[in-house]
Specification:
The chain is an alpha+beta fold. The strands form 12 sheets. The protein has a 9-stranded antiparallel β-sheet. The chain has a 6-stranded antiparallel β-sheet with strand order 3-2-5-10-7-8. Strand 40 and strand 41 (about 860-865) form a beta hairpin. Helix 3 (about 200-220) crosses helix 5 (about 245-260) and helix 14 (about 545-570) runs parallel beside helix 17. The structure holds zinc ion. Zinc ion binds near residues 482 and 597.
């Protein structure tokens, strides 16, 4: 029989201190790893380095300061003469560059140790090897993005000699301003305050990372959480165990930490896919030139981390930045390609830059994808599948369709977490675009693209995930960003520790594709969101920096003209003509670069807009010259046959016939015109039936018939203007008080209401000056009542009045209001001298129209938004974006408000406003001060907007006819000089773009359905077409929509005579069939808001 002895019972000790108090314990533990806390000289941070020296015996420093704020290459820099310098010296001013030659002799006593070079000058720097390889970026300061350490060696011999260069840029991570968005101070100087060789105490660092996680869990899991209590207890134990200066206690602390962190999760825990990332704003609080260096600093740092952490993955967008690095940093480019090849460095995004999607035209958005995807494919052998746009200010409803057409499947953002009215209700969902195309979309629930890898962010990722019922995973995008930088080693260290810790979601170093494919695999169904992703913040960006907006519109349309005309010249097989592929690509790259989200938004510093102006001027001057040359070439005007008698030639680059009143110079040889302009040197001509995409000449000998426009002043000093269609009344201060439509027999302005009212709003946003106009600005506006009016032109072709107004003590406005004999459209050519501080000028019209929605033009279509503030979602849209027009319609009629360079509108009830000029002071204190030239127009129309021709009128207003005075003997041959393309049977379809195919001599034609209805159209060409392929915007062929079915090639003629007769008959029949097929054109079935790209083989 076995005897059991009672074993000795182990019982808990009696605590000799009071029960832990949560708040006090957490504060105590926080102080343990805080640099600014009481006792920081003996807490864990005090133990991070075992040894440190800044002795000049070991570090010698020489500097070359580059004059004139120039940024020079490594090769240039190393040839300069360097002078000695030292710790504590100041360097500047802002934006200057200083190259340091650093020579290091490692102390003997550091033998066997890892040795770090420590550098802090409160600005940005890049370490270069002696042979010109960028090694790592350094970020000064004490913020969370600080990066002071560079690992010189992981095992020093002692007395090692190491040398390298440091390129110092005199700007911080966020430029050189005061506060985050203050305009740059040109005179900032930077102190080299830290310069050391140091030996890290590695166990202390390990404990720091462990402790950050344990403390984070204690703090952020909440007092009801079991794991929070356990974490707090563990953290407190570690503090009790640690003795400064006794490294053995650190080892014991590490054992305590490991015990806690070893507890694993259950199977159903949320899964986080962590992506290293570095958001570099391509231009913002620093100029583009500095962005090039930011990319080198940030990416070389990340390559170094990839070497040290094999599981680490980093994603990076924006082809433009890759191209800059490829051009300027050949060595680094080679390293990046190595890391891309092994899947650590992951190109993503698929666009040229991370663009604004509110204001670029449809074609410009297409070019972002075309330029981006082609770059990625050419350089890295594959396209991107994920459209990456974490920071743009609202997302166009056409993006899902465009993504699909750019061969992309997934969309990532997070910016809507910044909404300041409504919380966006979804995280992982189907985003359904204007045309019904859907894209799998995810908005990181951590609500940042600059995560720091704290437990709090992981906890937040679960808490804020609004679709976790359906999908149990999310993306965590970590790494310092906006100014660049990217992940720190400490972030990777923390993620390693948090991979599977009970209480926190599971984390994996991953790729975005893995995430989206996992959602597809594991999710049965997801909710959907239809239409635009309107951003409820930054609503001032549609207006800020007016000149940038103006050039954006004009450059896009100039390129439209240019590519079309060049395509015509190209297909006419003129041997002397070469389609200017390189020039057009350069133009588009500049336009796309400026469409970067902060630049297009108007929220960058003044230096950025100086650069934009240079680029735009180049496009404008060079582009217009090219357009003139092309028109001359196409119309045979290159070698004009001189004749005394003159006439005019007119070219229409729009795809519908036009009738207009043109203003032409009065030159010798022209017959006298029906009307000279008020200023004498020009006159007006009526032209009509100008063919679509074609030319017509006018000898001006006979004037076309028209009913004259009349203008007069009545007894109350009101001015009445009247043509065949409408009668318009302006009061004596320039307000529109009557708009009567003769065929509709109705007045558009209610008694007592009016239009063309200029209103100044006080515009003081809460913080983001250039970005935001806040909801309360609507409560504080003043109407510029006073004004004067006089008649400028009396008709018969064109009547005009001049309105002058003082809109404030410091700003004045002058406008010429024009009504022609032949149109309902009233144009307002406006100039403003603007000198304001945080004022916002809008022009408003109150129409007698009942409408719940306004129709706003967007890329390739229309977005409807409410005219009321019923819900918080409706009210949040108090300022919205539109392209060439917004339209208010009811049954039977409507009025469009057109513009040639503006993007902001607002509507409430029956009032529609166009936003004209703002005056924010940060980050550009001179923003929009000065002279403005802008045009808008009102266009009353028969029929509701949906049945109207407003879309065409928007184009007509923005795309003037190209006019030439020429010899009379040339005008008759004009019509035949260009190939004719036209679309028949579908007035709702717009032929938008004609260009040469990227990879062949075929022609690309892009068209779209503009109103939201199905269309059956016939596409006709004056040239015989072999085939038409429908393509995506990358010009991959998708399906054949037209093919010449019979060929008229002669067959073998070696047979008998009888057969030859038969053969000839066959050929004739085929020719006949061919002609018939050609005459019928190609049948196109187009869906509502569809963007259709056709590749035509001629
Ligand atoms: Zn950004």
């Amino acid at each position: 029989m076995q005897r059991y002895l009672p074993c000795k019972q182990r019982e808990p000790a009696v605590m000799e201190s009071p029960k832990l108090i949560r708040s006090i314990t957490i504060d105590r533990c926080s102080n343990f790893i805080s640099g600014g806390a009481n006792g920081n000289d003996i807490n864990l941070l005090s133990q991070l380095y075992k040894a440190r020296t800044n002795s000049e015996d070991h570090i010698s420093l020489m500097v070359y300061s580059v004059p004139d704020l120039k940024r020079i290459t490594f090769e240039e820099a190393v040839q300069q003469e360097f002078r000695p310098t030292h710790l504590g010296e100041w360097f500047g001013p802002s934006w200057s560059t200083h190259w340091f030659h650093v020579q290091i002799r490692i102390p003997l006593e550091f033998a066997g140790e890892e040795v770090h070079f420590i550098w802090n000058a409160d600005n940005e720097a890049l370490i270069w090897s002696m042979d010109g390889m960028p090694l790592q970026g350094l970020t000064g300061g004490a913020g969370s993005d600080a990066r002071h350490d560079y690992i010189l060696t992981t095992q020093a011999q002692g007395d090692d000699f190491i040398q390298f260069y440091v390129e110092m840029a005199c700007n911080g991570m966020f430029g050189a301003g005061n506060g985050l968005i203050g305009p740059p101070d040109p005179n900032r100087f930077f102190n080299l305050s830290e310069l050391d060789l140091a030996v890290p105490n590695k166990p202390a660092w390990q404990l720091l990372y462990d402790f950050q996680i344990i403390l984070g869990m204690a703090k952020d899991l909440g007092p009801d959480s079991l794991r929070s209590s356990q974490a707090m207890y563990t953290a407190n134990r570690i503090v009790n165990t640690f003795v400064p200066g006794d490294d053995s206690t650190i080892m014991t602390c590490l054992v305590i930490a490991a015990e806690f962190l070893a507890s694993k999760n259950g199977d159903a825990q949320h899964e986080i896919y962590a992506l290293g990332h570095c958001h570099i704003d391509t231009g913002w609080l620093w100029p583009f030139e500095e962005t090039i260096r930011k990319a080198a600093r940030s990416w070389s740092t990340q390559i170094d981390l990839m070497d040290r952490y094999p599981e680490y993955k980093f994603i990076c967008s924006q082809a433009q930045q890759y191209e800059w690095v490829k051009t300027n940093y050949a060595h680094l480019w080679g390293r990046i390609r190595e890391k891309i090849a092994i899947g650590q460095f992951l190109p993503t995004g698929g666009t040229w830059i991370e663009m604004d999607t509110n204001m670029p035209s449809g074609e410009a958005l297409c070019r972002q994808f075309l330029l981006g995807q082609r770059f990625f494919e050419e350089n890295f052998g594959k396209r991107c599948k994920v459209f990456w746009l974490p920071d743009s200010f609202g997302y166009s409803s056409q993006l899902p369709q465009l993504l699909q057409l750019a061969d992309m499947k997934y969309f990532f953002t997070q910016k809507l977490s910044w909404n300041n009215v409504n919380k966006f209700p979804m995280t992982t969902f189907w985003w359904i675009g204007l045309d019904g195309t859907k894209t799998l979309t995810h908005m990181a629930p951590s609500e940042t693209y600059n995560a720091q890898c704290s437990p709090e962010e992981l906890i937040r990722s679960v808490k804020n995930h609004r679709d976790k019922e359906y999908s149990n995973s999310s993306l965590l995008v970590y790494g310092n960003g906006d100014g660049g930088g990217g992940p720190l080693a400490s972030m990777i260290e923390r993620l390693r520790r948090m991979k599977d810790v009970d209480g926190l979601p599971k984390v994996e170093f991953s790729t975005p594709i893995d995430f989206y494919e996992n959602v597809e695999r594991t999710t049965d169904a997801l909710c959907s969101w239809k239409g635009e992703l309107y951003f409820e913040l930054h609503r001032g960006i549609y207006t800020t920096h007016a000149l940038c907006k103006k050039f954006n519109r004009s450059s896009e349309l100039l390129l439209r003209d240019l590519e079309m005309l060049a395509s015509f010249a190209h297909i006419m097989k003129d041997q002397n003509y070469k389609y200017p592929v390189a020039e057009f690509e350069q133009f588009w790259k500049m336009i796309c670069l400026i469409q970067f989200h902060d630049v297009m938004a108007g929220s960058s510093i003044e230096m950025v807009y100086d650069d934009c102006l240079q680029m735009y001027t180049k496009i404008d001057l060079h582009g217009k010259q090219m357009r003139d040359d092309l028109v001359d070439k196409l119309l045979g005007w290159e070698n004009p046959i001189m004749s005394e008698e003159k006439a005019i030639g007119v070219f229409n680059t729009l795809a519908w016939p036009r009738q207009e009143i043109l203003e032409i110079p009065l030159v010798e040889g022209l017959p006298s015109l029906a009307q000279n302009s008020a200023f004498g040197r020009t006159g007006y001509v009526l032209v009509d039936d100008i063919p679509p995409l074609g030319a017509k000449g006018y000898d001006l000998k006979t004037c076309l018939d028209f009913e004259p426009v009349k203008i007069h002043m009545d007894q109350s000093n009101n001015i009445l203007v009247e043509n065949k269609y409408i009668q318009v009344t302006f009061d004596k201060s320039g307000h529109l008080i009557g708009l009567y439509d003769k065929s509709l027999m109705r007045e558009f302005i209610k008694q007592g209401e009016r239009g063309n009212v200029f209103k100044m709003y006080e515009d003081i946003p809460l913080f983001w000056d250039a970005w935001d106009v806040e909801i309360y600005h609507l409560e504080k506006g003043v109407v510029a009542e006073e004004g004067s009016v006089q008649i400028l032109e009396h008709g018969p072709l064109r009547a005009a009045l001049l309105i002058e107004k003082r809109i404030s003590d410091t700003s004045r406005l002058r406008q010429c209001v024009i009504l022609t004999a032949i149109s309902r459209r009233i144009d307002f050519e406006t100039e403003v001298d603007w000198n304001e501080n945080r004022q916002f000028l809008k022009v408003e019209f109150a129409w007698d129209i009942l409408a719940d929605n306004v129709f706003y033009e967007t890329q390739y279509g229309i977005v409807q938004r409410p005219t009321h503030y019923n819900t918080s979602w409706d009210g949040a849209k108090f300022e919205v974006v539109a392209h060439k027009f917004a339209d208010m319609s009811e049954y039977g009629c409507g009025v469009a408000l057109l513009n040639d360079c503006k993007y902001g509108y607002s509507a409430y009830g029956n009032v529609l406003r166009l936003s004209l000029i703002r005056s924010p002071k940060a980050p550009d204190s001179n923003c929009d001060i000065g002279h403005h030239v802008l045009r808008y127009a009102i266009y009353p129309h028969e029929n509701h907007f949906m049945q109207s021709d407003v879309v065409r009128e928007g184009f007509n207003f923005n795309v003037p006819l190209i006019t030439r005075v020429m010899s009379i003997n040339q005008v008759n041959s004009l019509a035949k000089s260009v190939p004719q393309f036209r679309i028949e049977g579908a007035p709702n379809v717009v032929l938008d773009t004609i260009k040469k195919a990227e990879d062949s001599d075929d022609l690309i034609i892009r068209l779209y359905e503009a109103y939201g209805g199905h269309a059956t159209a016939r596409f006709h060409s004056s040239l015989p077409m072999k085939s038409i392929q429908q393509c995506n915007i990358l010009e991959d062929e998708l399906e054949t929509v037209y093919e010449m079915t019979s060929t008229a090639e002669r067959v073998d003629r070696t047979f008998s005579t009888n057969l030859r007769v038969l053969d000839d008959d066959m050929v004739d029949l085929r020719l006949e069939a061919q002609q018939k097929q050609h005459a019928q054109g190609a049948l196109l079935k187009i869906k509502p808001f569809q963007v259709m790209t056709l590749k035509i083989k001629l």
